[in-house]
Amino acid sequence: MQLTSPDFPRNAAHALHDAALQRALGNLKAGFPGKRAAAVARLPEFEALRDLGRDLKNHIIEHLDYYLEQFEASVQRQGGQVHWARDAEEARAIILGICQRAGAKTVTKGKSMVSEEIGLNEHLAAHGIEPIETDLGEYIIQLRGEHPSHIIAPAIHVNLDQVSDAFHQHHQQYGKHERQTEPRALMNEAREILRDKFLRADVGITGANFCIAETGQTVIVTNEGNGDLTQLLPRVHIAITSIEKVVPTLEDAATFIRLLARSATGQEISVYTTFSAGGRRAEDLDGPEEFHVVLLDNGRSQMVGGEQQDMLRCIRCSACMNHCPVYGAIGGHAYGWVYPGPMGSVLTPQLVGIEHAAHLPNASTFCGRCESVCPVRIPLPRLLRNWRAREFERHLTPQGYRFGLRAWAWLTRRPALYCGLTRLGARLLRWLGGRSRRIRSLPLAGGWSAWRDMPAPQGRTFQALWAERQRAAGMEGKR
C-alpha cells in the first residue's frame, strides 16, 4: 500500500469535500457507538473486565519472549510450523515460498490488516498468484482497487450505489449482466461468485486475532464465515499475524473475546469464533494438510520497554476510531496508510517513521473519547503527545508553530506579563465578537475559523477567577 501520510492535510481536505464519503460516514456516527454503549450496559462487570484485559496485556508484553517460544513449541506439537519475520520483506518472502511450494495459482484470504501492512496482495500478484479477498467488505474494495478505510468495516466509506457499480462492472465476466441494486441481491451475487473461488483455491491465508501459547491455536473472529472456508478448504492454511497477538491460555483468550466483540460491533460475541491448530489429522473429515503461522515483528519488539509500549495492548477493535470526531469527519483513507484513526496515529509513526507520518499525531482534538472507550485502556492521548514531542525535537513541525510555542513558553515564565496580555487579548476578542459574540475570522487561526465561528470570550479571565476562588478558600479556612 502506497504511503500517503505525508499528504494528510491534502487528503483530509479532499475527504471533507467528498459528498459520497460524507454520506457514508454518517452511517458510522449512527451505528457502532450506540451499539457498543448498549452492549456495555448489558454487562455490569465490563469496567472490571477492561482492567483485567489491561493487566493481562501488560503481563504478556513483559514476558513476550517466553509466550512466543511456548506458542511455537505448541504449534509444532500440533503438526504445524511457525515462521519468524523480522520485517515486511521477510514475511512476504516466507508466504510466497509456501505458496510456490504448494504450486498455488489462486489464494483466498480472510481479513488481515497485517497482510495489508506488508503489501501481500500486490506481492503475490506480481509473482503470478491471484489473491482473492473473501470478506465481503474487503472483496468490494478489492474490486474498486482500494484499501480498507476501517479495521472491522473496510468498506464503510462506500455507499450502496458504488457497490452496485463495482459488481456490475466486474461480474459481467461471470455472466452477471443485470445491475443489482438491493443489498440481498448483491450479497447473493458475491456469494455465488466467491463459492467457486473457495473451492478452487490452493492456499488459504487468514489473520489471527489471538495466538494461544498453551495450545498452539490461532483464533479468528468473523461475522460471515469466510474465515472458516478460507482455512478449511485449501490444502494449505497460512495464518499471518503480529507478535503481540499471543495470549497465555484459553481462558485469557476468552477474556479478550468478551471485550473485543462488545467494543467493536456491540455484539456479545461474533457470529463465528474459530480456533485452529495444526493440519488435518487422520480422523479429521476436513481441514488443510499444512498449517503455517507467520509471526511478524516489523518494529514491534522495539516498542517493548519504550514510551509507546502501551500501544502493544491494542486488540484491533476499532472503538477508538468509531468514537473519534476526526476520523468521523474524514474517514480512514485520509490517514494515508493501513491503520487509521487514533490507534493508527500512534502505530503508523512507529512502523514507518515519524518523519513520514508527522501529521498524524496532530490529527487529534485530544477530547479523550478514544481512551475512554478502549477495552484495554490504552492512553492514546498520552501516546500521541509523546509523538508530538519527538516531532518537535526533530524539527519536523512548521517554523510558525515552533515560533508560537517558544513565544508562549517565554510568556508563561513571566506571569505578570502573561496575565496582562491575557486580559488585553480577552478584551480585544470580545470587541471583535461584537453583538453576535462570535468571531468569523482570526489572524493566524485560519485553519480554525475557515470551518467554524469562534465564540468570543465572556466575563473575566481564568487567572482572575482562580485568584478569586483561592482568596475565598483562604478566608473560609480562617473561620
CATH fold-level topology of the largest domain: Rossmann fold
* Helix fraction by DSSP (H/I, runs of at least 4): 40-55%
Give me the CATH architecture of the largest domain, please. Answer: 3-Layer(aba) Sandwich
Uncertain residue segments: none
- Main β-sheet, spatial strand arrangement: 1-10-7-4-2-3
By secondary-structure content and strand pairing, the structural class works out as alpha/beta
Shape: globular
Going by CATH, the homologous superfamily of the largest domain would be NagB/RpiA/CoA transferase-like
How many E strands? 12
Query: Tell me, what is the CATH class of the largest domain?
Result: Alpha Beta
Q: Sheet with the most strands?
A: 6 strands, parallel
Radius of gyration: 26 Å
Domain 4Fe-4S ferredoxin-type: 305-335
Protein name: L-lactate dehydrogenase complex protein LldF
InterPro entries: 4Fe4S_Fe-S-bd, 4Fe4S_Fe_S_CS, FTHF_cligase-like_sf, LUD_dom, LutB/LldF, LutB_C, NagB/RpiA_transferase-like
GO molecular function: 4 iron, 4 sulfur cluster binding; metal ion binding
